[in-house]
Automatic annotation (TrEMBL):
<dbReference type="GO" id="GO:0070286">
    <property type="term" value="P:axonemal dynein complex assembly"/>
</dbReference>
<dbReference type="GO" id="GO:0007288">
    <property type="term" value="P:sperm axoneme assembly"/>
</dbReference>
<dbReference type="GO" id="GO:0005813">
    <property type="term" value="C:centrosome"/>
</dbReference>
<feature type="compositionally biased region" description="Basic and acidic residues">
    <location>
        <begin position="36"/>
        <end position="61"/>
    </location>
</feature>
<feature type="repeat" description="TPR">
    <location>
        <begin position="178"/>
        <end position="211"/>
    </location>
</feature>
<dbReference type="InterPro" id="IPR043195">
    <property type="entry name" value="TTC12"/>
</dbReference>
<keyword id="KW-0677">Repeat</keyword>
<dbReference type="InterPro" id="IPR011989">
    <property type="entry name" value="ARM-like"/>
</dbReference>
<dbReference type="InterPro" id="IPR016024">
    <property type="entry name" value="ARM-type_fold"/>
</dbReference>
<dbReference type="Pfam" id="PF07719">
    <property type="entry name" value="TPR_2"/>
</dbReference>
<keyword id="KW-0802">TPR repeat</keyword>
<dbReference type="InterPro" id="IPR013105">
    <property type="entry name" value="TPR_2"/>
</dbReference>
<protein>
    <submittedName>
        <fullName>TTC12 protein</fullName>
    </submittedName>
</protein>
<dbReference type="InterPro" id="IPR011990">
    <property type="entry name" value="TPR-like_helical_dom_sf"/>
</dbReference>
<dbReference type="InterPro" id="IPR019734">
    <property type="entry name" value="TPR_rpt"/>
</dbReference>
<feature type="region of interest" description="Disordered">
    <location>
        <begin position="30"/>
        <end position="61"/>
    </location>
</feature>
<dbReference type="GO" id="GO:0005737">
    <property type="term" value="C:cytoplasm"/>
</dbReference>
Amino acid sequence: PPAMLADREQEEAFQRFLRRVDDIAELVQGLNSPDPDVKEKAISEAEKRLHDQENSKEKERTTVVNRTVINTQASDMANAEAANADGFLAILEKDAKERAKQRKRNEHLANALKEKGNDAFRKGDYVTAIQRYTEGLEKLKDKQELYTNRAQAYLKMHEYEKAIGDCEWALKCNEKCIKAYFLMGKAHLELKHFSESRQCYEKVLQIDPQKGSLFKDCMNEVNLEEKRMKDEERAMQEVESGRLAALSIKELLQKLDRPDQNILYYTGGIRLLTGAIKDCTEQTLFRTNNGFSILEDNEVVRRGFCAERKNTAEVDLSVSLLFLWQAVCAGNEENQRLLLTYPDVNAQLPKLLSSGVPEIQKQTLALISLYSENENGRRLLVRHQDLTKWLQILMTFVNSPDARASSAMNILSNLTEEERFKSRCRVMLSADVLPLFTQLLASAKLVNQAALAHCIGIMGNLCADVVIRMQMAKCKECWQACLKLVDECFDVCTHKYQECLFAVLGLMMNLLLESNGIIQHFAVDITGRCMPLLREKDGRIVTRAMGVLSRILPASSSAVEEAVKGGVVKKMIKFLKAGGQIASSYGIKTLSVCTRSNRQAQEDLVMSDKKFTVLLKLLESENEMIVGNAAFCLGQCLVVPGAAMSLLNSNVVMILLKHAGGDATRTSVQENAAIALGKLCVAEPRHIVQLRKLNGLAILNSSMKYVDST
């Protein structure tokens, strides 16, 4: 029947419409895919659909068809389907055009970042090069050149697995990329993946047979390296089979003197020698049998140890030597001295620390630790090493996630005990060390936070040196980084980050011993960061925040106003009631600065400290700095109406008289007490009665010159 036919046609039209909607949704999803292959396929499909749509419209314009309308509902549904589908395709076309524009912009940015990366690569700054290539890939994920360039930088950094990964991505962008296969072949060769390396070079020859002569040398290199590896494995087996194991120190050293052996033979011999050194007797035998001359006498060992870019065998050799020297130098000052007299050792130590090879760095740090742990060892390092750049080199280990970071910080902490090391730090501080330090502070969320806290503490200790402190206090970027770290503490509540915050507040306190325009510029910002810290649960952080406030507020009246508006007086009175020698010292100093010139602070203190209970208690402290500041605060607050009268029934006259009369050893304390006593009697004459009873009028008369001057 016609009605059933109409229903069926309507259902079919509706289902066709849904299928087209699903197809278009899938297409849009493909355009957003991070996978270059999926995205490329989706772009091609979209272009095909747009092309088909244009052809269909053209056909409709040039072809006239006479139709007999059987069912208007089916026709309406078909028209609706076409309209909706055309709407989706119109959106798709608009989206494609917008994406094309965005891609063009991103391609321009990616090319600029690629050039910056290339420039850094040419300068040998491979870390920066990798960063720039990575930033470029964030703009354009399917740019093959960025993957291959970054792979080349990874090769320079001995990051062979990462290099292979980038080459694989480059081949997804361009399956015939010769550079990707070439670099991947090199990476596999370094990892001793000989079969995979050959496959890469063979693939190049399949793509471009004309490069046969060029890649023939690469294939030969793979074959030679594989043969050498097998020879070395046999030599290693010979060494480890025990044939040399029973030999004495002297005999083992003689075996290492054998010329024309491969590197693994010597590596195995060095390991056996290390195992044979168990006490000071073997250490002495090693020295007396000229064991330290192994670098001078053995060209294979010297070349492997001094190689700039070490292969796997050279890394193993270097690590074995470092283990050996640890064994012979542990607790032996003469061996420590003798090792540093060899030029190759002296030249290589900073290079090994900067090598980027984790195991080499770890064992180099372990060796240097032997020296830094005692005074004689530190003096040997200072005497034989150019330590000018050591502060910078060791500081970079804050980026290490493992034990290297703590080892480096312990060495640095020990070295700062040497005055000659501090004097050398001054030379490179502004140019090299401070930029690195500020970068680490600004990246506190990303680095090893335990090591960063230690590093900040070390820099704080270095501030005991006036020259270093002045340089740091003038560094605008350093202050900005400190404030950024404090800001982030409210977002990151881990124990390690709290330690960084504690350390940076200590550093700021030390820097605030200086006074300069930069400090005045940041005074309000520093005050604003410290005020919320007064609510911290960690009492150590609260105490240091009080310390920073006590030192920053004298630098700026605007900072004082900021603090007073934030309720600093009430908070300080609260902390002073709780007691504690250090907190009391910082708290009363903060109050003395605020009440010196701020009437609101004076009124807040009178309101918060009823009858001056807290100040009277502080006036009886054994710490004269606290007494002097308490007397100063009291004197400033007596201008508030009713303040002097609230003290009528107290023993304030006797306390002030005692300090003004000479019990205090500091002249400033005597003066502050005398001034407070004079202001008290002027503000409330009834206090003079008590003064007469104590025979203190003569002291009051002598104190009037101080009162008049104020």
